[in-house]
């Protein structure tokens, strides 16, 4: 069985569209192991311990850095806003089934301009002001089945749809915050029923939105006026998810399933599942060079805390798993999430004690962080500044 990898996979998304070269094709079967460290792509690292005044369990993706605040949602806690020091400012709405409450908070988004937060609660979108006041609900029943992932885009609500059910009419829908239709893209894949219920994904880069689903071979770029262009493609082959019911339940672990894609000016980082492994993938947008580093060996269960990532030689601290991207003051940042008990365990190891990082003063700051934390504290955000 292959090792569990994190592959910094730097894709050519904008630079690979010339007639001579065509769209870049990513093939998970050809990813090679090739070590890289944080200092090769980043020049600074900071940590934000989350406020312990409210216990937080499982934190979902995405996590937004908007207007000097941090927005995240967590199991049994709901959507919360923190300041940049990690202090809890307020909760947005609350978990429940009463008026203005939501039962699910896995899927939410925040508008950078107005501060409005929308939460997709099953087949209903619920909107809240930046102060947490419930505004309204938008019913999605009239648009049929399949609402999947939501994202604010130009202050409108972009909704991608699951394609693997009968009755799904659209690839995506765009609504304003009153529920009026702005744009609809009709379904482009023939109807089918699959064994898997796997979400597609959305990410922002520059002024554009990018969208994919696991059964399409194309990651699409969407302009502010909702013009669609192919960005890159997944190569054909037996690694692709079949549009049919699995004959054996164990087959579900064999296929390529994208989970996260993040793009920067120089790289694209993507995490995916393939052949029972979790891989975080990235190829230089100009050179197409690829990099990888081993995580842990053996099978994994999706949703488990996975230790590993890019070697952190900036301060010798935790390995880095990029999960979010944002831009601030014209600098690019990646964000990961780490647990206090892992931090405290690491600083006691001989490996950490003898490691000489790029920035020794940051190693001392990391040791101070470990000393201040309790093992049962809330999680810590790990913020990495990318090189210019």
Would you give an account of this structure?
With 388 residues, the chain is mainly beta. The chain has helices spanning 340-346, 350-354, 360-372, and strands at residues 3-8, 25-26, 42-49, 64-66, 69-74, 78-83, 88-92, 108-110, 117-121, 124-128, 134-139, 147-153, 156-161, 170-175, 181-186, 201-205, 208-212, 218-222, 228-234, 257-263, 268-274, 277-281, 291-297, 324-328, 331-338, 380-386. Residues 1-21 and 296-304 have low confidence and may be disordered. The longest helix is centred in the last third of the chain and has 13 residues, at 360-372.
The arrangement of helices and strands along the chain is EEEEEEEEEEEEEEEEEEEEEEEEEHHHE
What is the name of the CATH superfamily?
TolB, C-terminal domain
Assembly annotation = single chain
In this structure, how is the largest beta sheet organized? 5 strands, mixed
Instruction: Fill in the CATH topology.
Output: Neuraminidase
Spell out the blueprint of helices and strands.
Layout: E1 3-8, E2 25-26, E3 42-49, E4 64-66, E5 69-74, E6 78-83, E7 88-92, E8 108-110, E9 117-121, E10 124-128, E11 134-139, E12 147-153, E13 156-161, E14 170-175, E15 181-186, E16 201-205, E17 208-212, E18 218-222, E19 228-234, E20 257-263, E21 268-274, E22 277-281, E23 291-297, E24 324-328, E25 331-338, H1 340-346, H2 350-354, H3 360-372, E26 380-386
Parallel strand pairs: 2-19
Antiparallel strand pairs: 1-23, 3-26, 4-5, 5-6, 6-7, 8-9, 9-10, 10-11, 12-13, 13-14, 14-15, 16-17, 17-18, 18-19, 20-21, 21-22, 24-25, 25-26
